[in-house]
Design goal:
single chain; 170 residues; globular
Length: 170
């Protein structure tokens, strides 16, 4: 079984990179879907749910909520901590971690134009969300990354070529 995890700060392009793995036959799982379901269940915002689920269920609660099957090749969008990476490694033996980066300006522009209900619309909201993600441990995953994609001023074809190179390494 091949498990690819995709991490990065909000707006870095994790979902785009994940979709490129899906085009190459990987089954997708999205950590944010677990958070959004939990938010609806608890009647709180997704930002609140991201903290609450980990306080109530531990740092691996979101991984447990994914319900990952035994597909040959999966890609997980949105790891937030080393503990989540370790949970995948303990369950599946190995995790290939892809870290996606982009500048603060680019990430903020992407989030403001993305249009999800929980996306920031002001700089203060963006900064608060980024602070929360950093406190969860997402930037610590950079040191654990097997591959780093700089998603700044690149075409989709450029990103496809980078993902192709990563898939060859798996």
């Amino acid at each position: 079984m091949i498990v690819v995890g995709v991490a990065g700060l909000p707006g870095s392009g994790k979902t785009v990179v994940t979709s490129l793995f899906v085009k190459r036959g990987f089954k997708p799982y999205t950590m944010g879907d677990v958070i959004r379901r939990y938010a609806e269940y608890k009647g709180v915002t997704p930002d609140e749910a991201a903290i609450l689920i980990r306080l109530e269920g531990g740092m691996r609660a979101v991984v447990r909520g994914l319900g990952v099957g035994r597909d040959d090749r999966i890609v997980v969008d949105g790891l937030r901590s080393l503990e989540e990476a370790e949970a995948f490694e303990e369950t599946f033996g190995r995790l290939f971690l892809v870290y996606v980066v982009a500048s603060r300006e680019t990430r903020m522009k992407r989030l403001i134009t993305r249009g999800r209900a929980d996306d920031p619309i002001t700089y203060a909201q963006f900064a608060m969300r980024e602070y929360r993600e950093i406190r969860l441990g997402v930037t610590a995953l950079l040191s654990r990354a097997d591959a780093i994609i700089v998603n700044e001023n690149k075409s989709i074809e450029d990103l496809e070529a980078e993902v192709d190179e990563i898939v060859k390494r798996l």
